[in-house]
Structures are given as structure tokens and as C-alpha cells.
Amino acid sequence: MKITLHANLDETQEFLALGVFEDDKEVYGGYNKDLAKDLEEALKKKLFSREFGEQYSTKISSLPFRRILILGLGKKEEMSLERLRRSLGKIVRQVSAVKLQKVATNLPALAASARHLSEEAISQATAEGLLLADYNFSKYLAKERQEKRLPLESVSIQWKASAVFEKGLKTGRIIAEAANFVRDLVNEPANVINSVYMEHVAQSIAKTSPKITVKVLNKPDLERLGLCALLGVNAGSANPPKLVFLEYNGAGANAKYTALIGKGITFDSGGYNLKPTNYIEDMKIDMAGAAAVLGTIKVAAQLGVKKNLVGVMALCENMVSATAQRPGDIVKAYNGKTIEIGNTDAEGRLVLADALAYTEEKYKPEVMIDLATLTGACIVALGYYAAGAIGNDENLLASLKEAGMQSGDRVWPLPFFDEYQDWMDGTITDLNNNSLKAKGREAGAITAAVFLGKFVAKAKWVHLDIAGSAYWTIDNDYLQKGATGSGVRVLSYWLLR
Ligand code: BES
Ligand code: MN
Ligand code: ZN
């Protein structure tokens, strides 16, 4: 998709998309009298209102465009980067529905007229909204069906030539393309993507930048080092467990590391606590945290982020077999804590426990952020439009929440009350991976984080539960059903802040 700037509305394009605020007096009378008349009539006949989300499609014979779409933008003071992305997403959907590929629009300029948004933020969000909305996972469809959906070819933005705007577009493109790369990985099935595949992807990302080094702990290393919580989860799988590290050096040898740790369960059957029908089908997505880590390291390298990062992927497959872990088994984690396996389906916390403890000891990071499709309870609590965030440092939590709001890839704090801190304690072991205190599923997202917290010694740490945000069963304006790339956008904004 080519995105270009054009001082006026570019009449060489096929499709024109314009916005109107509720508070706008004049509606395009200065641009084209016929359009203004048509719009006024549509408003009078209530075919269209200027509330946010309203759409009106028309065609004006005195204008060269094959279609014109008018979008209601709501109140000017309520304009936001997210409303801009969503409006651009609506445009991409409409253009695609009428099988056109070339668009001209003034939405970024209208967002700028709201005056509380910066030029660079607007341009970045513009690229994000367009590229995320144009994403499509169609590789397994026959050519004829693939070709029914045309990708956007060019978007001409009404904006005077500007280096700042171009810079924002470039940043937004890098972030959105990384998110789309993660969506591809998460949408791929588990018979394609396993730990070996994920390691290869890490190696190929490292080849694109001299600042990235990949290190891998394979099964013999994990056994030697005693990462037995992770090993237990993989015990039933024909694929090998791996702990993959992507070291990104953006700040020289003396700067402290920030660790980004992703749950990479390439398939979560539940193990002997087997998931039932209607719960097991989408469990190829259980590596979305690891994929988001890859995507974020890619962004950091492309944007030259001046920080030292270590991206960690805890790769396993949770399967059933004669060698699989049993409920009631006891394992000892890397940090020496013993864990009774109360439920083989609570496997994410087990692999992350070892990944957190090992990474902290090895890299002494100042900050650790883990990303995991960890609990169904988090989806119950927050739905799709935010990841749950829990941690031990209020400033880190606040900065992530802020980055989430700016990026549209929201993270929302859940409480880490004292009362829950012993809810994961075991009876014959230090810990149980399934709460013995909970009667049912209450506070499931919180107690999972309590478990993880027992494997963090002194780093500032935040856990992001992306179970709901990483994979949607609903469409919205610029993201569709399926993988969303959640994690990449919030972490990229956070790294750039
Ligand atoms: N991977 C799942 C969580 C999940 C559920 C992610 C739905 C995405 C969509 C996780 O491993 C899991 O099974 N969690 C259990 C924990 C329970 C056994 C304590 C859950 O949430 O039910
Ligand atoms: Mn599970
Ligand atoms: Zn899982």
C-alpha cells in the first residue's frame, strides 16, 4: 500500500472518503456545491448523522470519484488517535466492499483540526489504521477466492508536504507491519508452527540486524539447568521444548536489560485436563505472547530503539500422551520452588515461571514484562478490548497503561491485592498451579499472576494477560476476527515514549 501526501483532495483516486464533525457548520460547500447539497439533504432526511461511526455513501456527477464516503466523526473535542484509526478502518472496509483500490481522504487533517493531537502521532496512527485494516489471512484459499478481495493500492492523504508527517507514517508502518507479521504467525495452525519453526523465525529476524543475537536453550540444556516446570509441560509432545532469547543491543554494553517474555505454547490441548469441544479449537493461538515478543524486537531493530532488550520465547506444546505430565505430578522449578500440578491445563504459568526466574538470574533485567494468553478468566473480566495488567511497580503499570491508550492496544490494570497472595500456595508443595483456595474460577486472572509473581525476585515486573486481546471472535473497524497482533503496538509505543 502506497501512502502519499497531496496538497488537495487527490482527484486521480477512485474513492473519496471525507469526515464531518458534529460541530462543523459548513459541509464542503467550499469544495463542491453538489456534494454540499447532497450531504445537506441526506442530513435533513436523516439518512446520515454526524455522530461517530455514522456512514453515508454517495456519488456526485461533478466530481471524478467513482464513490464518495462520508464518515460521521462525532464531537471534535472527542477526536482521538483511536477514532482516527477506526474511521480509517471503516474506509478500508468500504473501499474493499466496492472493489476499488485507490483512495483520497482528509481524515488526518480533520484529526489535526481538533488541535489536541500532534502531527507525528496523527500520521503514525494513520499508517497503523490503514495497514492493520487491510490485513487478510488468505493464503489457504483458492486463488479465485483470494482474488475476490482486493488489497488497497494507494491512499492519498490531503496534507501539505511534511517531513514530520512522513516520519510518523514510517513509524506507523513499521509497527503495523510487525503486528501483521505476528497475526500471520498466530493465525497459522499448530501443524505448521511449532517450537522449531519459531526458533527459525527468530533466527531470520536476527539476520536482518547486526544488533540482534539469538541464543537457544534446548532440551538437554533445560534438563541440565533444571527448568523442570517448563519441561513438564512439554513432556507429552513430539516437538522439543525451547527457551529462545533474542538479545537486542541498542544501548551499549553497560545499559540494563528490559526483558520481554512471551508464552509460546504452540498448541494447548489442556493435557490430561483435556479441553472440551468449543474450547480446544483455537488453541493454536497460545503462542501469541511469544509471537508478540518477536514482533516487538523486530520493531525495536527497525526503529533503532536505544535500549537493551532481551526477548524471550518459552516454547512448548501441551499435549496428551503416555509420557505427558499427570495431574498430581510434582515438579521443581528453576528457582527451587516445588509445584504440584493441580491442573495440566494451567500450563502457561508453569513455562513462564521458569522463563521469568531464569531470565532474571541470567540477564539481571531492570524491567520484565511478560505477555501470555494466560487465562479464560481474563476474557471474562475484560473481553477483547484490553489485556489485563498486573505487576509489582505502579510507575511501570501506569506507563504501560498510557502506551496502551495511545496505541489502541489497551492494557488495563487488575488488582494485585494482598489477600490473594497465598491463593496459589500448595499443601504438600510450595505452590499448586491451580488455586486450592478458589471455589471455582473467581479471580482467575489475578491468581495466575500471583503464581507468576512467585518467580520474580526483584525486577520491576508487569504481566500482560492477552488471552482476550490477542485473538478476536468479532470484527471491529480496523481489526478483524482472528489474530490481532496484540502486544506489539502497546510495547512499541512504550519503548518509543
Ligand atoms: N491458554 C489457556 C487460556 C486461554 C483460554 C487463552 C481461552 C485464550 C483463550 C490457558 O492455558 C488455560 O487453559 N487456562 C485455564 C487455567 C485454569 C485451568 C486454572 C483457564 O483459563 O481455564
Ligand atoms: Mn491451558
Ligand atoms: Zn494455555
Describe the structure.
The chain has 497 residues and is α/β, with parallel strands linked by helices. It is built from 15 helices and 19 strands. It folds into two domains: 160 residues, Leucine Aminopeptidase, subunit E, domain 1, CATH 3.40.220.10; 310 residues, 3-Layer(aba) Sandwich (Aminopeptidase), CATH 3.40.630.10. Helix content is 36%, strand content 20%. It has an eight-stranded mixed sheet, sandwiched between helices. It has a six-stranded mixed sheet with strand order 1-6-5-2-4-3. A three-stranded mixed sheet has the order 11-12-16. α13 links the parallel β14 and β15. The radius of gyration is 24 Å and the shape is elongated. Zinc ion binds next to β9.
CATH level 4 superfamily of the largest domain: Zn peptidases
Number of helices: 15
- The number of strands is 19
Percent range of helical residues: 25-40%
Number of domains: 2
**CATH topology-level fold name of the largest domain:** Aminopeptidase
Strand content: 15-25%
How would you sum up this structure in a few lines?
By secondary structure, the protein is α/β, with parallel strands linked by helices.
What brief labels describe this structure?
497 residues; alpha/beta; Leucine Aminopeptidase, subunit E, domain 1; Aminopeptidase; 2 domains; six-stranded mixed beta sheet; 15 helices; 19 strands; elongated; binds ligand BES; binds manganese (II) ion; binds zinc ion
